[in-house]
Amino acid sequence: MLDDSKPLFVAVAEQIEDGILDGTYAEDDPVPSTNELAAFLRINPATAGKGFSLLVDAGVLIKRRGIGMFVAPGAREALRQRRRFAFQDQFIAPLLREAAQLGISAEDLADMITKEAVR
């Protein structure tokens, strides 16, 4: 459901982002309203609204006055790019630092990853 380690509004935004990335919400598709999402998640509508605002500010969602929120054109690819950079910063860089401290070469590390991927 929602990640308890983050502020609720951030977790709401990430849940919508996940839906865009996995194809639940395609470009130009509507997303649930603030009230619908708040009721479903049993959270305050203002909290859900704050999560939606993050996505609007990031260009992931667009508001259509009187109609609702829709996935912006190019949102899926923009999210992928942003998360790839975050993945590198959060996982790859620390992995390489730890491997260097342990004397694991890049080739050995690549072998380990390949072996783990086929498990």
From TrEMBL:
Q: Which residues belong to the signal peptide in this entry? A: none
Q: Which CDD domains match?
A: WHTH_GntR
InterPro entries, per this entry? Tscrpt_reg_HTH_GntR (IPR000524), WH-like_DNA-bd_sf (IPR036388), WH_DNA-bd_sf (IPR036390)
**What domain of life does the native source organism fall in?**
Bacteria
State whether keyword Lipid biosynthesis applies. Answer: no
Which key words tag this protein in UniProt?
Answer: DNA-binding, Transcription, Transcription regulation
Q: Where is the HTH gntR-type domain?
A: 6-74
Tagged with keyword Transcription: yes
| An annotated Gene Ontology molecular function | DNA binding
Which protein is depicted? Answer: DNA-binding transcriptional regulator YhcF (GntR family)
Natural source organism: Agrococcus jenensis
